[in-house]
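ARCHIVE CARD
Drawer: 12
Card no.: 0347
Subject: one protein chain, sequence and derived structure
Cross-reference: see card 0346
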Amino acid sequence: MQHEKVEIVRSILVLMLIIASFIAAKRYKNIPFLKYSLYWVAIFIFFGVIYTFKNAAFEVKEKMAAELIPGYAVSSGGQMVVKKADNGHFYLYLNLNGKTVRFMVDTGATNVSISKNLAQEIGISTENLKFIYTAYTANGVIRTANAIVREIELGDFKLNNFTVSVSDYDETIPLLGMSFLNKFKSYEFRGDSLYLKY
């Protein structure tokens, strides 16, 4: 709280200095050298303020994106926060082998599940996969096979050679199960937000 007050006072002082520089420049308009010097002082102060508060501006942008785009995770201090979508589900955008994929968070699912088509899109050869496992879904019983995703990224959080479950049903919604959530130090559903600590 004290830090915020200091920042507010500092911002007001800087703004006053910029305004004073422009007023002084107009006052001494008959002395070109002094007038343009004051203009340059104001410009340097302005860009100095932008540079100083660039992190705060970035945080504001991140929070706005999280509010507007369900599944957009905001990272800060080793923690990610994602907002619940209008349909009551949580979604996360993960990067799988360079491709961005929207997953639905499902704590009732054991593994991360993707369709065979998606597996092919991210570079997994499905020809030799053995669909020997069984999964029970809303669409009935489906066959699945284990496969390795070379790289999974969620913001700063990265996993290599991660095992996923590939479904032989092409309409499978990408699901983010417990095998992924348990890789975090902790996860917590609080209100309309999901908190992931890493």
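Annotation on reverse: The mean pLDDT is 80. Residues 186 and 197 are 5 Å apart (CA to CA).
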